[in-house]
Each structure stands twice: as C-alpha cells, then as structure tokens.
Amino acid sequence: MTVEIKIPDVAESITEVTIATWLKQTGDYVALDEALCEVETDKATQELFAEAAGILEILVEAGETVDVGAVIARISTNGASATPLSAPAMEAIPAPSEMASQPESNGPAEIIEMRVEPFAESITEVVIGTWLKAEGDFVEMDEGLCEVETDKATQELPATASGILHIVATEGSTLKIGDLICKIEKAQSGAKTTTPSPSPSSSATNATPTSTETSYATGTPSPAAAKILTEKGIDPTSVKGTGVEGRITKEDALKAEKPAPTPPPSSVTPAKTPESPKTPAPAGERTQTRKRMSQLRKTIARRLVAVKNETAMLTTFNEANMQPIMDLRNKYKEAFKEKHKVGLGFMSFFAKACAQALMEIPEVNAQIDENEVVYHNYVDLSVAVSTERGLVVPVLRNVEK
C-alpha cells in the first residue's frame, strides 16, 4: 500500500507553499507522525509529518514551490515494520557479543556544524531565543535544540545528527543567514561515556531498562505553549501533553490551570522561603523589570516609527451625534450576532464613515509618486488590533464595498 503525502490547507489565503528542507531522504524508513520536511508560506514555516510508517519516496525537491493539495512524497507501507536491509548488509552486521568486544575507534570524531538556514525571502537575520539543551548534552537526531525567533514566527531548531552538543551562539544573539549556531560531535548514545571495567554499581545502573514509551518530545512545550505557560506561571512538568509523542501543545497550555500552592515542609526554615514576586515594593522604592523583546516586537516598533516619519500625520477633533448609530446598533445587534457569530461594535460604523468620506474627497485618499498624484478609486483601511503577541495593523481591502 502506498500513502501519498499532500500539502494540506494551511490557511484560507495561502494557495502555494515552498519546500524548504527535507528532514528525511528517499529510501529512509519513517515512523508515523515523524517530521518529514519543512514547508514555508508567506506567514510562517512549519513541519509536515508522516501519515503512515514505511519507506519514503520524495517527489518534490527542496526549494520548489507547489500548490496546496499537490503530492510531494509517497510512503510505501508494504510490510514495512523496520528499515529493510539487503542480505549482504545483514551479514555485515556483527553480533551483539562481537560489537561489545570490538575496540572503539581512536580516530577523530566527525563534527557537524549547524548554521542559520534561509527561512523566507524577507528574513535576513534571526535571534536565538531559549536553548532547550545545555552545553555537553547528548542530543538525538531531530531533537529540539533551541528556539529561533524571526520577524514573523518562533520555531524550534532540530538536531541534524546524534551526538554531543557544543553551543556557539548564546541566548539573545542576533545571527545572519549562514552564521554558525552550534556544533554536534557525532556519537552514539552508548558511546557518550566509556568505562574500562564495569563495577557493581555501574552494572546495576546499566541493568535498569529504558522506557520506550517516552521521547525527547514528551513533556516539552512548543514555543507558543512555553510562552503561555510562562505568562501563567505554570511549570511545564505539571502539564500533560496531548501532542505528538506527548509534546505540550498550545491548546494544552491554554487549558492548564496553576496548581494550588502547597505549604513548605517543616524542615525548610522561613529564611529559605523566597519572597513572592507579586509582593508590592515598599513606598518610595524605585524598581525596574527588564524583559528581552522578541524579534516580532522589535519589527513592530521599528515599522511604527517608520510610518510616523514617512507619512503626514494629522490629528483633528470633531463632534458628531452618535445617537442614530447607537439606536441602529441596538436594533440589529442581536440579529447580527446570530447571523455572523460576532458582536456588532462601533468600529464597523467608523470604517464605513471613513470610506464614504474618502470616496467623496479623493484628494485625501491620494498619494504622491515622484511627479504625479495617484488618486485611488478604492479605499483600504488599516485598523490597529491588540493581540497577545503585540500590536498589529491588518489592512482591510475595498472597505467602500
């Protein structure tokens, strides 16, 4: 049986995507829900996951742009429960006893460099957010290493190999495309530490079975979920993830409730009890709290200042009788909400009034282009909207209609 991997509907306004990077290669065995590739849209970059377990066949190469619904890969599931090996390859695999008796290679370990890859055409630099792993940790392939922030989104950087992590770029560093983020010294998980002769304590430790029901994703929040949990003051370890391999999703973070505080044990002295951060500062004390801005907030601030410097700013105050509008709103707000599933606010009437005024006075709706004045026969309005990620100003097209 062959399962086709198609580009899903990402959003209503997205009609095509670009294959950024393939995380797997043709002929690789992939498990169910394992990440296959990264796809880029006009708004974000996200991973595409396997819909079945089997052997992967790539049909669209990295860098190509395809429409939504296009087939980019196939997965052959015919009896594929593990990566198939040819007879000579199986004979070349030594027995476990032979593998244990073989000496380790003394040659230099292979070093894999991880650099900033192109995210989108307009992205020229990124900011290293939070490192999910520490210097010297052993990381598995495709395991999340750190969060990378751009002007448009925050996403995790997965490891491209298994081995020992060596961090180069620290948290908060701004890097350009192609800059070095970290290095991975390739090694197997069993080769991380070696002992010449096993002691009784080490034998007992090695005899402890390793659970196969969990992975690096278990209990790890996504970037969006981590920010929500931080704002709520909830420890991620107290939240059960419902995502792939137990990852904590944004929905899990929104549903999570902060557990009731437990009294400290009697053995802990009052002197060691930390003071609550919500305790108000004494009168007259001048304190400050600093928090690093995300790349998105930096971009918002930069563009707001640019708009103020590049456009003619005018503020005028006029009084208008709003009673007819209030009567009209009270008359139709229930029917409007029942039909459109959203409340009828005053912003709709303000937008209508502005559009009508701009159509009646086209000089106000004009712009200067070198030696010409361009008059628009349509009205586009920008409305500032406050969101959890900051102030954004979406453009409403053809408001006059």
Quick summary:
By secondary structure, the chain is α+β, with helices and mostly antiparallel strands. It has eight helices and 22 strands.
Describe the structure.
The chain is of the alpha+beta class. Among the domains are: 2-76, RNA polymerase II/Efflux pump adaptor protein, barrel-sandwich hybrid domain (OB fold (Dihydrolipoamide Acetyltransferase, E2P), Beta Barrel), CATH 2.40.50.100; 111-189, RNA polymerase II/Efflux pump adaptor protein, barrel-sandwich hybrid domain (OB fold (Dihydrolipoamide Acetyltransferase, E2P), Beta Barrel); 223-255, no CATH class; 310-396, 2-Layer Sandwich (Chloramphenicol Acetyltransferase). The protein is built from eight helices and 22 strands. The strands form seven sheets. A four-stranded antiparallel sheet has the order 1-8-6-3, with no helix packed on it. The two termini are 51 Å apart.
Which features does this protein show?
alpha+beta, four-stranded antiparallel sheet, globular, OB fold (Dihydrolipoamide Acetyltransferase, E2P)
Number of helices: 8
CATH topology of the domain at 310-396: Chloramphenicol Acetyltransferase
Q: Round the Cα radius of gyration to an integer and report it.
A: 29 Å
Q: Report, as a whole number of angstroms, the end-to-end distance.
A: 51 Å
